[in-house]
Amino acid sequence: MSDSTEYRRFLDSRESLVRSGAIAVSIVFVLWAALAPTPAGFTPAMQSVLAVFGFAIVLWLSKAVPYVVSSTVAVVLLYALGGVETFQAASSGFASSLVFFLLLLLLLGQSIAEVDLDELFASRLLSTRSRSPRPLRSLSIYLLTLSFVMPSAVARAVTFIPVVRQMSDTYDVGHDSDFERTAFLILGHVNPIASMSLMTGGGMAIITSELIQNEVQSITWVQWAVFMIPPVVILYALAAVTAERFYGANDEIEQAMGQRSSPLKGNQAGDVELNLDRDQRIVGAVMFGSVGLWIIGSFIGLPTIVPAALAVGLLALPGIRIITAADVPEVSWGILFVIGAMFSLLDAMEQTGALAYMVEAITSVVPFATLSHWQVIAILLALAVLIRVFFSTASAAILIVLPIILRFGGNFGVNRLYLALSVLLIVGSTTILPFNTTSVLLSFDRGPLSNRDVAVFGFVTMVYAIFVVVFAWNIYWPMIS
Fold first, then answer.
1. Distance CA 417, CA 405 (A)
2. How far apart are CA 137 and CA 86, in angstroms?
3. Boundary (domain end) residue, out of 90, 111, 127
4. pLDDT class for 424, splitting at 50, 70, 90?
5. Which of 18, 122, 215, 468, CA to CA, is 20 to 30 A from 380?
6. Any residues with CB less than 8 A from the CB of 275 and at least 6 apart, and which?
C-alpha cells in the first residue's frame, strides 16, 4: 500500500474523530459564555467575545462544519451572547473592502481558466521541452511568470499536473521517478511562494496587506511590489534550485536523453503558436490593463479595489460575457466568510479589550521585557510558525495570528511593517504536514511524494525564508524605506 493511500485513510479516520470532538469543544465555549460567572478581570462582553473567538477557531481548524456555516453562526453568537450591542456591529467585518476585493480577484482568476489561458502557458512548456535540457527549471519559470496574472497557487498546480505527467512520459522516466517527485515538490512547495510577490497575488498577500492597512500604515500596490518582489524572487529561486538538486533529477533527465537519439516521444515536439482567440485576447488585455491601473493608482491615490471592479465589470458586459452568473457559485465563499467573521471578531476584541488581555496573558508567560530586540522578533515569528502548522491554509493562519503579533510588535518597539511582511514570508513558506497547504496536499495525493518528502522540503523552504527575512530586514527594506 502506498504512503499516499495510507495517509488518506489515516486522514479520514482522524477527521471523523476530530470533527466530533471539535463540535463538543465549541459547544463548551458557548456554554461558558452563557452560563458561567464572569471571571475576575473580565467584563461580560469580553467573556462573550473570547468564547465566540474560541468557538470559531475550533470549528475553523477542524472543518467540522463548512466555513460558511461556522462563520455565520459565530457572527450570530457574537450578538446573541452580548459581545457587541448590535447585529450590525457583529457583522461589521463583512463590510471590509478585503472581502469584496478578494471576491473580485477570485472572479478574475476564474476568467483566466475559463478561456484556457492557463492551459496555453502549460502547452507552451510542453511544446518547448525538446530545447530545454533543464525542464524543471522551465517549469519553475513558467509557474513564477503565471503567478503575476493567475493568483491561485492551487489553480496553477492543477493546470500543470497533467503537463508534468506528459513530460515524464516524454522523457520516459516513469511516474515514480526522481524527476516527477521533484516536479511535484515544485508544484506543491515552491509554486505558492510566487503568490506573495504582489499585493494582488493571492489570499495570503491580500489579507496581509489589508491588516497592514488597518493596523500599521497605508501601502500601495507599487510599494508592496517594491518591498516584496526581490525577497520573494530570491526565496523562490533558492527553493526551485534546491528542489532540482534534491533527488538529482537533472542527472536522471540527462541520462534518459543520452540513451535516445531524440529526447522526445510521440509527435509532440512541435511548438505551440500563440494564436489567441477573441476571449483570450480580451482577458489578456483586461489583466494587463488592471496591472497598469494598479501601478498608476499607486501614484494618484486610486483605491486598489477599483481596477479589479472595473475588470470584472468589463468581462461581464453583455457583449463579452466571459464572467457570467454561473461563475459566482464557483467562488471560494468559505474563505470569504471566514475573513468577514474574523474581522468582526477582531473589531469586537479590540473594542472590549479582549485582544489586549490576550497579549498581556502571553506576556506574563514569556518575559518579552527581558529579551533583546532580535529575540523578541524570533519568538514572534516562531509563534507564527507554530500556529501555522495547525491550519490547512496559510491565509487563515495569517488572518488569526498576525493581528496578535502586530500588537506585540507595537508594544515592544518592533517595526510592524517589517514584522508583517516577515510573518507572510515565513508562514507562506512553511509546510510540515501535507494538509498545511492545499497545493502540497494536491501534489502529495497526485504525485509520488511521501510524508518525509513533504516535511523535509517544507523545513528547507522555512529555513530559506528565515535567511531571506534576515537579509530583507537588515539590508533591503531599510535601503528602500
1. 11
2. 55
3. 90
4. very high
5. 18
6. none
56 domain-assigned: yes
- Please tell me what DSSP assigns to residue 41: T
Cα–Cα distance, 342 to 164 (Å, whole number)? 38
**CB of 376 closer than 8 Å to CB of 412:** yes
Residue numbers of the domain that contains 322: 98-330
Residue 234 domain flag: yes
State whether residue 318 is helix, strand or coil: coil
**Pair 159, 16 in one domain:** no
- How far is 91 from 417, CA to CA, in rounded Å? 27
Q: pLDDT for 77-88, tens place per residue?
A: 999 999 999 999
For residues 219 and 205, what is the distance between their CA atoms, to the nearest angstrom? 12
- Please indicate, yes or no, whether residues 83 and 129 belong to a single structural domain of this protein: no
Is 101 in contact with 303 (CB distance < 8 Å)? no
Instruction: Out of 63, 90, 117, pick the residue that ends a domain.
Output: 90
Mean pLDDT (whole number) for 391-408: 83
Verify that 15 and 73 share a domain, yes or no.
yes
Angle between the 97-114 and 153-171 helix axes, to the nearest 10 degrees?
Answer: 30
Indicate the pLDDT class of residue 258, thresholds 50, 70 and 90: low
Q: Let me know whether 71 and 116 are in one domain.
A: no
Mean of pLDDT values over 122-148: 71
Q: Return the DSSP state at 433.
A: S
In a domain? residue 375: no
Number of domains in the chain: 2
φ/ψ (deg, to 5) at 18: -65, -40
Residue 456 and residue 468: Cα distance in Å, rounded?
Answer: 19
- Give the span between the Cα atoms of 251 and 273, in whole angstroms: 30
Eight-class DSSP state of 317: S
Tell me the three cell numbers of residue 128. Answer: 518547448
Q: Is residue 116 domain-shared with residue 232, that is, in the same domain?
A: yes
Higher pLDDT among residues 78 and 14, named by residue: 78
Same-domain pairing of 198 and 303:
yes
What single DSSP character describes residue 370? G
- Angle 203-215/416-427 helices, nearest 10 degrees? 160
C-alpha distances out from residue 266 to 175, 202, 254, 278, Å: 17, 37, 19, 31
Same domain as 12, residue 109: no
Q: Are residues 71 and 104 in the same domain?
A: no
